[in-house]
Amino acid sequence: MKRRDFLKIATGSAGGAAAIGVAGARSSSTSAAVQEGEGNNTTSGNGTSGNATTDGGDSGEGEALPGAGTTKTVQVGPNGQTVFDPETVYIQRGATVEWVWGSDGHNVAPDSIPEEATWEGHEPLENSGFEYEYTFDGPTGEYQYVCTPHIGVGMEGTVVVNESGQPPGGEGGGAELDPEEMGVPFQAHFVGIATILMMIVSLVYAFFVLKYGESQHASAPNKE
């Protein structure tokens, strides 16, 4: 085989590999866009459903709040401990927090809340088995509260109402995202890696064949 012909074949192989990689990446990106659209539709449906069944889940203008229909539970004095568990809860506007008493003599008394918020907590002391819930449909921010009889031993809690309903990433509370959650299907990474490897192998193979694989007269068969 002549060097010129071989170079054409090697170049064509590398180009074909690159084309396959690009096509695969585009296909994966399209799939990701479709999945993202489906996820948005599901979220919208949940918000509408929550608005129909949850008090305080509406902004007053017919628009469902993002956290409507969501409930998170806080244990009050579980197993006789003077703590709120979890101590900090993250929710979106419209979500509900339910406090469940696990021992006697506790309350939920607001200590510091956002301006214009109207949450009054539940200040009467209650015993094990009592439940109290509240839907946070007011302003975003931190709603700090305490157990009045046990404030001296640090029985405090916080409800954080924010846009995402999740801890800020900078605090280390957010879960690590995998490539699919970041909007890039994991298969696209394999396509890119395979494409690069194929191109490298083609170039290395071409180099060795051109350097060592041809006879002295392969490029000029008619030469004596």
UniProtKB/TrEMBL annotation:
Residues 70-80 have a biased composition (Polar residues). Residues 36-56 have a biased composition (Low complexity). Pfam families: Copper-bind. Keywords: Copper, Electron transport, Membrane, Metal-binding, Transmembrane, Transmembrane helix, Transport. The crystal structure with reduced Cu(1+) has also been determined. Cu cation binds at H106, C147, H150, M155. One of its GO terms (cellular component) is membrane. The chain crosses the membrane at residues 190-210. Residues 77-162 form the Blue (type 1) copper domain. Its main location: membrane. Gene3D superfamilies: Cupredoxins - blue copper proteins. Its cofactor is Cu(2+). It is found in: Membrane. One of its GO terms (molecular function) is electron transfer activity. Residues 30-80 are annotated as: Disordered. The keyword Transcription regulation does not apply. This is Plastocyanin/azurin family copper-binding protein. It comes from Halobacterium sp. NMX12-1.
